[in-house]
Amino acid sequence: MSSRTIRNDQEEATAWAESAWAGAVYEGDPACIGAARRFATDFLVERHGFDATSGVVGAVQLIVSELVTNACKFTFGPCTLDLERIASGVEVTVRDSGTTLPVARAADPGRVGQHGLEIVMALSDSFAVEREPVGKRITVRVSAH
């Protein structure tokens, strides 16, 4: 039986190094963006031994920031962040209550803002969006090789 640790932004997690999965629940306020980045960094660096300055950690931090920012900005209510260490790298999943699926826009260097999805897709090896009974799930994989 696998162990799972769930953490919310108001309480500390009980974590153990051998766990390949960790999850967090955020209320959707702006403070959750930084909390989610720290959670992802701790997961990779403290629990899985990644160098804090590695490209993998930087990519996951930026992906988490973009996805959680969108969840906080464009939906109502809480969002969840799941991180999983997989054989090829790291899987990041964000769930929120929004029913509108994100759509990548054509690249436009003159556009100010709204480049988050482009950034996420550029940093990831795979990107998937799925509707759920309440909202949507975005899953991204980042290679560690």
The helix/strand class is alpha+beta
Sheet with the most strands: spatial strand order: 1-2-3-4-6-5
* Average pLDDT for all residues: 87
Q: Please mark out the parts with pLDDT under 50 across 5 or more consecutive residues, or reply none.
A: 1-17
Number of strands: 6
Describe the biggest sheet? 6 strands, mixed
The radius of gyration computed from the alpha-carbon positions, rounded to a whole number of angstroms, is: 15 Å
The helicity comes to: 25-40%
Helix-strand string: EEHHEEHEE
Structure commentary:
The chain has 145 residues and is α+β, with helices and mostly antiparallel strands. 31% of the residues lie in helices and 28% in strands. A 6-stranded mixed sheet has the order 1-2-3-4-6-5, covered by helices on one side. Helix 1 runs antiparallel to helix 2 and helix 2 packs antiparallel against helix 3.
Descriptors:
31% helix, alpha+beta, disordered N terminus
Q: In short, what is this structure?
A:
The protein is α+β, with helices and mostly antiparallel strands. Helix content is 31%, strand content 28%.
How would you summarize the topology of this molecule?
Elements: E1 6-8, E2 21-26, H1 31-47, H2 55-74, E3 79-86, E4 89-96, H3 116-123, E5 126-132, E6 135-143
Parallel strand pairs: 1-2
Antiparallel strand pairs: 2-3, 3-4, 4-6, 5-6
Helix pairs in contact: 1-2, 2-3
